[in-house]
Amino acid sequence: MAASSWAQVPKPLQRLFDRFPLLTYDATALPERSRPATDDTLPTLYTFTTSEEASLGHPSFNPSCLKWQTLLRLSKVPVRILPSTNHASPTGTLPFLLPPRSVSQTPIPASKLTDYIRTHGSPLHPAPVTPRLDAYQALIDLPIRNAWLYIVYLHSGGRADGWYIEPASKDRLIRYALRNGLREAAASEILKGTGMLSLELEDLDLEVLEKRGQEALEALAELLRESETGWFFDAEEPGVFDASVFAYTYLLSRHVSDRDISGTVKTAAGGTLDKHRIRMLEMAWPGWDEEKL
């Protein structure tokens, strides 16, 4: 039986291809202006920040970004900071790191940054493998984070507009859509964090969330007061857990100083957390004036 003609090239097209055969050329390199804004010698850490603050090396206003920015500085890994967004991230979240162009262009997500630091910087103090660590980490990831999310994204006096929305677009409709998207995402995260997925946004109570965040900070302060070294879990040097706590204590003190939860940072366990915050700042940003950070 003759082969079906459905896959055969029509004769007019075949004559055209015979006259002008298709050629496959090697890929053309992108023009220099469209290459990623990376450095030939330094890795680039993409975070939530502004262009001005990135150029000055200031701390990010996002807790996750600030945690890793702090760890890189503590480990003496020099990086270039550039502002970015979740949409530009290969994993959909920030931060991520691009190695120098001379080495690789494979992005490194936050989940792999500990390995990168171990390879390229001073060793990080390993966190103790204990259920106690998990319990205290949960205080950061749930009540403290929930309070931060509400204050920044859902509270009428929050900072989300200035940090995330206004720099993204001048168009009112786009800003409106971004604002609603951020609010919905923050509310969803809080509801997941509280285990109350059946509730609605209007059911969330800032006073309750802030109170739980304060209680979590007080528990962390009591834990730190037990340490003889001034670092969590009696570590000789600050580690990942210290950076996780600092990311919130610094931002709460710096950006929501009018809230009760900021006062808790300064007073809990006789100011233990605030002393820790200052020590971390002095180690990661030595010689810097805190008023300028």
From TrEMBL:
InterPro entries: Metaxin_GST, Mito_Protein_Transport_Metaxin, Thioredoxin-like_fold. It comes from the Eukaryota. GO terms for biological process: mitochondrion organization. GO terms for cellular component: SAM complex. Pfam families: GST_C_6, GST_N_4. Residues 214-252 form the Metaxin glutathione S-transferase domain. Residues 63-155 form the Thioredoxin-like fold domain. PANTHER family: METAXIN RELATED, OUTER MEMBRANE PROTEIN (SAM35), PUTATIVE (AFU_ORTHOLOGUE AFUA_1G13180)-RELATED. This is Thioredoxin-like fold domain-containing protein.
